[in-house]
Design a protein that fits this description.
Number of strands: 8
Structural class: alpha+beta
Low-confidence stretches: 15-26, 28-66
Strand content: 15-25%
Helix content: 25-40%
Number of helices: 7
Strand order of the largest sheet: 3-8-4-5-6-7
Order of helices and strands: HHHHEEHHEEEEEHE
Shape: globular
Largest sheet: 6 strands, antiparallel
Mean pLDDT: 76
Distance between the termini: 57 Å
């Protein structure tokens, strides 16, 4: 019995440490982020430049991008600062950002919070993701609390504390571990 209790204890400690390390990635930030302090534990996001490639910017080269309205709308949001509860270009959280992009690109009104958004659409397996699918994450809580938009080629966009609206590699270990599921809001293809 002692070894089982030790295993449970160790698992609990691991979950506690993971929660502390990854809690600041969530849509609901710790109080420090409300004061505008950046999170240096998250993977760095590099600004776009003409010499960067996809891995450095998280953005496909211009000649391989689709040039559709999803890309155009996202380009208008890139670099917007994170603000808990925010819904504008002056500051936006993850669910506010996803809601605004989906409204503008697809003319679909989503609920305001990530957990409410998770209740919408059709569940999609990780291997069947399409552009425009919503990705949901749980970094340190018992329920969904972060959302982003899948862009294809392993990339997704989201608003995150300390860095605001960015495009990142969905295949990073931190996102794969926290991934809860995906939902397809738009059926019949994307724009």
């Amino acid at each position: 019995m002692k070894s089982r209790n030790e295993a449970v204890f160790r698992t609990g400690i691991r979950l506690l440490v993971a929660g502390i390390l990854f809690g600041t990635v969530a849509c609901t930030p710790n109080p420090a982020y409300r004061k505008g302090k950046p999170d240096d534990r998250m993977p760095p996001h590099r600004e776009r430049s003409s010499t960067d490639d996809t891995k450095e910017t998280g953005r496909p080269p211009a000649d391989t991008r689709r040039g559709d309205s999803l890309d155009e709308v996202i380009d208008g949001w890139l670099g917007t600062p994170y603000q808990y509860g925010g819904t504008s270009h002056g500051g936006v959280d993850c669910s506010g950002y996803v809601r605004a992009v989906v409204r503008e690109v697809y003319n679909i009104e989503l609920p305001r919070t990530s957990i409410q958004q998770y209740g919408e659409g059709i569940s999609v397996g990780r291997r069947n993701l399409r552009r425009g699918d919503l990705l949901f994450f749980n970094f340190d809580r018992e329920t969904v609390h972060h959302v982003g938009i899948y862009l294809g080629s392993g990339l997704f966009t989201h608003s995150t504390p300390g860095r605001g609206v960015v495009i990142e590699d969905f295949n990073q270990r931190v996102y794969q571990r926290a991934f809860v599921g995906a939902k397809r809001i738009v059926t019949g293809g994307t724009r």
